[in-house]
Amino acid sequence: MIRAYKFLMRPTVGQQVALGEMLRDHCSLYNGALQERRDAYRHVSKTNVKYGQQSAQLKEIRAFDPERQGRWSFSSQQATLRRLDKAFAAFFRRVKAGQTPGYPRFRGQNWFDTVDFPKDGDGCRWDATPHDPVTRVRFQGIGHVKVNQHRPVIGKVKTVSVKREGRKWCVVLTAEREQPEPLPLTGSVVGIDMGIAWFLTTSNGEHVVNPRHARAAASKLETAQKALSRFPRRKVKNRTANHQRAVEKVAGLHAKVRRQRLDHAHKTALGLVREHDLIAHEDLKIRNMSKAPAPKPDPEQQGSFLPNGAAAKAGLNRSISDAGWGVFLAILTSKAESAGREVIAVDPRNTSRQCPECGHAAKENRPTQEKFHCVSCGHSAHADVAGALNVLRAGLVRREAAPA
């Protein structure tokens, strides 16, 4: 089992400068490799340059520029080239699938914030001073950096990454560990219905409040973004101190919302995992649900469009993004795996329209957002509770039908 750990680093002023230079030089390597691929395809008979060819050039690049490229770990530079290779692989996959391709783009220094080390001990060393009471991680070209390790790392460290978040620096580890002992069985099963009015509703009738962190911070974000908009667009090295503070203010507010959303998702998922042996949820296609509606051309007037409800859909899309369903479900699955619990995703079709008593499915069964009233048998309930019961029933059926 592979688990990730993220810790805040406490670098000195000199180490912060060196970390910034490491990101800058890896960003330069990424952009140079991307430029080589673009030029080869455009000017050399549509030739596709592969990772192996670019990796083989690293020795010459490091010897030609020892001050900027030769001082960093060879394996971390290979990881940066693999990162570009994965971007191209995803681009070609989307082209074949008929999706919006999204050609790989050049990265500015503010948009390149991570350097990966594929193996602990190759260019980096986690807990490089085990006899020191202060945990430190060592990076080639930077030295021993203090780490605020708030929890123990269980298992063998496999990879190490450096990540910049605003003015903060973090180290991200992946460690391989054995499957932990499962939690004691509770004999309880539950279905959950994700929503906007309530974050989720269980088949037991319990509601979890939707905190709406982004909406709560909307007024502060609006003020900060207005202050930022007063500055003209500048290059990074031409920014004034006031401009930089305005940028950091907006970034800090977004980071706070992200941390609040993660905290809520972790606590909610942990409560479900501790109380239930099986958790069934809807297999939501969140990306499709949050798509903007397609424009409707007016057939009677060329160049004009009919109303398509884009404004109302934009508000719903913001609420879906603010709820963070995808993050929550990923955390729930991870915690359930560690605890030996079972999580089942079921088809969400008609779960909110089907009667949990008689099975009749009709649009009229849900006259309002909260009320469910079956037009066939007369059963009445909270709409989200009825949906959660249908999700649980579908999850139990799927578990029984699964091959042993």
Characterization of this structure:
By secondary structure, this protein is an alpha+beta fold. It has two domains: 2-176, no CATH class; 189-401, no CATH class. Helix content is 42%, strand content 20%. It is built from eleven helices and 16 strands. The strands form four sheets. Strands 2-6-7-1-5-4-3 form a seven-stranded antiparallel beta sheet. It is globular, with a radius of gyration of 26 Å. The protein starts with a strand and ends with a helix. The mean pLDDT is 91.
Main attributes of the structure:
five-stranded mixed beta sheet; about 40% helix; about 400 residues; alpha+beta; 2 domains; 11 helices
Summarize the structure.
This protein has 11 helices and 16 strands. By secondary structure, it is α+β, with helices and mostly antiparallel strands. It has 2 domains: 2-176, no CATH class; 189-401, no CATH class.
